[in-house]
Write a structure and sequence with these properties.
The complex is a heterodimer.
Chain A (H helix, E strand, L loop, with lengths): L1 H15 L3 H22 L7 H14 L10 H19 L31 H5 L4 H12 L4 H8 L3 H21 L2
Helix pairs in contact in A: 1-2, 2-3, 3-4, 3-8, 6-7, 6-8, 7-8
Chain B lengths: L2 H11 L7 H24 L6 H4 L3 H24 L9 H22 L5 H6 L6 H8 L1 H12 L6 H21 L7 H26 L3
Classes of the chains: A mainly alpha, B mainly alpha.
Chain lengths: 181, 213
């Protein structure tokens, strides 16, 4: 567990400094831990697991500037995953009972599960609802796998404008997920 | 969208992150909020004419120290509550300490006073307006602190909103203390505190709605 902590922390810290490929590796490895963590807590709602994995990844990405390298990564990830889990339960309140989702054990990295099931909610459909200026660069990056620089060239926007648009678009996407019925 | 596609999208859009975002956001918020509070005081109340005489009185500094220490405590709380997974630790005790100290001082003052003077020590000349004016002066800081927090990631929204409200209230009280002529510890222990609690309660109420992410 502490080996995972050290490894992931190293990946994240390098990712935050701008190393895209280590950041990719961080998200990839983290998603497996999140899936295992959420699977244990959402055993009665198996259909929701992959949606929540995606929502939590998006949240971690959007709030990554709040991570302080002096802080245990486990605590930071756990607090975000728990926050998103509680949010989901609140949205569904009254429809289903769940097994003890509110524990405070810091065991996010205890398990790992790379078997992604299909997400029920299609983020691509939600992306379609974003305003053009935010949607275009995101779609380009996603469908064509372009980098920020290539997207800037393809859309005629400046690099900074692409970054801002994508950042705002991903925040808006998180807000759409959060506010959906 | 598959999770792997999402990960690829997030990774390719991620550039380097600006370090110390918390500090820069709250520095900006405190700067603008304090500027707004001082401006508001200058417009609504003016500058206290005998300020130069007041600074020679020790009680003037005690009166400033009370909201100033609360401001410092609230700032630590706000910084901690803005990051997921950071515990408050002993911060609530640090925030309670100046309140208890002021109440202790007020108790000593009241015990030493003649029974007929006690009402005057508690009510002063401005008990009715003091909390209201403090709450009003805290408004710019209140908006600024919630703005700063909104761009971060508080996970306990009631507590985070309350801490942002206390920060604003303490800032408003600090600015008002420069103007307010009241000098009695019992007055400050009651009405200043009440004034600071107005934005604190408001923050606790609005936090869950405004700070979600």
């Amino acid at each position: 567990m502490s080996a995972s902590e050290d490894r992931l922390k190293d990946l994240l810290v390098r990712g935050l400094a701008g190393d895209t490929s280590t950041y990719h590796a961080f998200l990839k490895e983290l998603s497996a831990h999140l899936r295992a963590f959420l699977r244990r807590r959402l055993s009665r709602l198996p259909d929701e697991i992959e949606d929540l994995v995606q929502e939590t990844l998006l949240a971690i990405h959007n709030q990554r500037h709040t991570y302080d390298a002096g802080q245990p990564l486990t605590a930071w990830i756990h607090a975000i995953a728990r926050y998103k889990l509680v949010d989901l339960l609140r949205r569904r309140a009254g429809r289903d009972a769940l097994n003890d989702p509110l524990d405070d054990e810091l065991e996010v990295f205890a398990g790992s599960d790379t078997e992604a099931s299909d997400a029920r909610r299609d983020l691509t459909k939600l992306l379609e609802r974003l305003p053009e200026r935010q949607r275009m660069p995101i779609i380009r990056m996603k469908l064509e796998g372009l980098s920020v620089i290539e997207t800037a060239r393809a859309t005629g926007m400046s690099e900074a404008a692409v970054k801002v648009s994508v950042h705002r678009g991903l925040k808006a996407l998180a807000a759409m997920i959060r506010d959906e019925p | 969208m598959k999770t792997d596609e999402l990960i690829a999208l997030l990774a390719s859009s991620a550039g380097p992150v600006q370090p110390d975002v918390l500090r820069s956001r709250y520095t900006l918020a405190l700067g603008w909020g304090a500027f707004g509070a001082i401006l508001l005081m200058a417009i609504l109340l003016g500058v206290r004419p005998d300020l130069a005489d007041a600074v020679r009185l020790p009680m003037f500094w005690v009166k400033l120290a009370f909201p100033a220490t609360l401001l410092a405590g609230a700032l630590v709380a706000v910084l901690r509550l803005s990051r997921p997974g950071v515990q408050l630790g002993r911060v609530p005790a640090v925030i309670a300490a100046p309140v208890l100290a002021m109440w202790l001082l007020a108790g000593v003052v009241l015990l030493g006073a003649a029974p007929g003077e006690r009402d005057e020590l508690m009510l002063g000349q401005s008990a009715a307006s003091c909390p209201f004016v403090i709450a009003l002066l805290s408004a710019p800081l209140f908006v600024a602190a919630l703005w700063a927090m909104k761009g971060l990631a508080p996970t306990t929204l009631v507590l985070a909103g309350a801490a942002a409200g206390l920060l604003a209230g303490a800032g408003g009280a600090l600015v008002y203390a420069l103007y307010c002529p009241e000098m009695a510890a019992p007055f400050i222990g009651i009405w200043y505190l009440l004034g600071m609690l107005v934005p604190t309660a408001l923050g606790a109420m609005l936090g869950p709605r405004l700070l979600r992410w």
